[in-house]
Amino acid sequence: MKVALAEAPIRDVAELAQIPISFRVERVCEIAAKPGEPSAWVLTEREIASPYLKDYDAIAREGPTQWAKYFDLTNWGYFRAHVDSRLAGGVVIAHRTPGVTMLEERGDLAVIWDIRVAPGLRGLGVGSSLLDAAEHWARSRECTELKIETQNINVAACRLYAKSGCVLQAVNPQAYPELPDEIQLLWSKPLKAS
Ligand SMILES: CC(C)(COP(=O)(O)OP(=O)(O)OC[C@H]1O[C@@H](n2cnc3c(N)ncnc32)[C@H](O)[C@@H]1OP(=O)(O)O)[C@@H](O)C(=O)NCCC(=O)NCCS
């Protein structure tokens, strides 16, 4: 399998909609405070009784074809991966963009807006390579921190971020009133200058 990863123009980002972001939820992460360390967390996994498919792109106003309608993407980064010349995944990084609350109006913060790998090619290292590329991009723009939002129902993403050196910074069970079973997890990775 030959993986080719390259930065691409942000104007092409709608092409990522070709790659399903959906995943099957069979297990969820349980999060507990580390004894004696109130802001540190331990993640364990629990199987759920009724597995289901989660699809972020199915949410109204979400997905790669929508972002340019709501935000100015001028300062965003986009890397795509091809496997044997087929689009296999991508990562999108938001930076210096009014209206993106997660950016906290900080020029030294970048947010992983989207990361996805084609279902048949997951688990082969493509996601890790995309995340590395995003980190490098953020560092080259003098960012000192990378931030990522996910949910406790996304075990693969949580494991990827933890393995990549991200630290769980916030656990918000009430973040999605319409999805009471999902807990918002905010991950952060401090970036050293390259
Ligand atoms: C999350 C995602 C991008 C990971 O990409 P990937 O190419 O499969 O990840 P990698 O192969 O680089 O795996 C890196 C690490 O992530 C973790 N991981 C990946 N898939 C996993 C899975 N199904 N279950 C548990 N851990 C998993 C492992 O720790 C893995 O390291 P290891 O192989 O040494 O065990 C991919 O699963 C995906 O596209 N999911 C749907 C889209 C999505 O949820 N995006 C994130 C939104 S917040």
Tally of strands: 9
CATH superfamily: Gcn5-related N-acetyltransferase (GNAT)
The order of strands across the largest sheet is: 1-4-5-6-7-9-8
Which residue ranges are poorly predicted, with pLDDT under 50 across at least 5 consecutive positions?
none
Number of helices: 3
Task: Give the class-level CATH name.
Answer: Alpha Beta
CATH fold name:
Aminopeptidase
Note the overall shape: globular
Q: How many domain units?
A: 1
Average pLDDT for all residues: 95
Calculate the terminal CA-CA distance, rounded to whole Å.
30 Å
Summarize the structure.
With 194 residues, the chain is mostly beta strands. It has helices at residues 67-70, 126-140, 155-163, and strands spanning 3-7, 23-34, 37-54, 77-83, 86-95, 109-117, 145-151, 167-172, 184-190. It binds coenzyme A.
Q: Would you give an account of this structure?
A:
The chain is globular, with a radius of gyration of 16 Å. It has a 7-stranded mixed β-sheet, with helices on one face. It is built from 3 helices and 9 strands. Strand 4 (77-83) and strand 5 (86-95) form a beta hairpin. It is mainly beta. The structure holds coenzyme A. Coenzyme A binds at residues 21, 23, 115-117, 122-128, 150, 154-157, 159-160, 163.
